[in-house]
Write a sequence for this structure.
């Protein structure tokens, strides 16, 4: 909105719209956390409860499970990744198509560069978050190395 319709920014993104967006983000994150927590605590662990990780990640907990109940959590992870990918496509691709179209209509080349370099850090951070999260949760178990798992977890959790 700031780039495509700068004169309408105050009316389109007022405090009410910001509250609605924040409430939607918090509500969906809470639902996501409750679903994973309930599924994780229902898993029977037969290999102890010690992880070779700094972070308590769901794929690492699934390795400790000795029953078929882990399939439910794995299914929930796949649905979550699909949902996150759908949001990524909807938010990022559609938004950035609109933004790049608006930027290309800016008459000065300096204005275009300034607008592009304003958007690129956001695009890079979100892409890093999504790609490392997808890699961490959907990589095959044969590619599981403790140091690689730790680096990937650190990237999408902290960075």
């Amino acid at each position: 909105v700031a780039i495509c319709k700068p004169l309408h920014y105050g009316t389109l993104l007022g405090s009410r719209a910001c509250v609605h967006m924040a409430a939607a983000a918090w509500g969906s994150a809470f639902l996501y956390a409750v679903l994973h927590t309930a599924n994780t605590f229902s898993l029977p662990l037969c290999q102890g409860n010690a992880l070779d990780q700094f972070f308590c990640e769901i794929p690492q907990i699934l390795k400790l499970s000795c029953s078929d109940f882990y399939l439910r959590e794995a299914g929930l992870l796949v649905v979550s990744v699909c949902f996150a990918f759908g949001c990524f496509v909807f938010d990022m691709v559609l938004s950035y198509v609109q933004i790049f179209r608006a930027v290309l209509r800016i008459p000065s080349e300096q204005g275009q560069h300034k607008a592009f370099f304003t958007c690129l850090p956001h695009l890079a951070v979100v892409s890093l978050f999504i790609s490392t999260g997808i890699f961490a949760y959907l990589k095959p178990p044969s590619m599981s190395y403790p140091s690689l798992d730790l680096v990937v977890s650190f990237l999408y959790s902290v960075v």
In short: DSSP finds six helices and no strands in the chain. The longest helix spans residues 70-104. The mean pLDDT is 76.
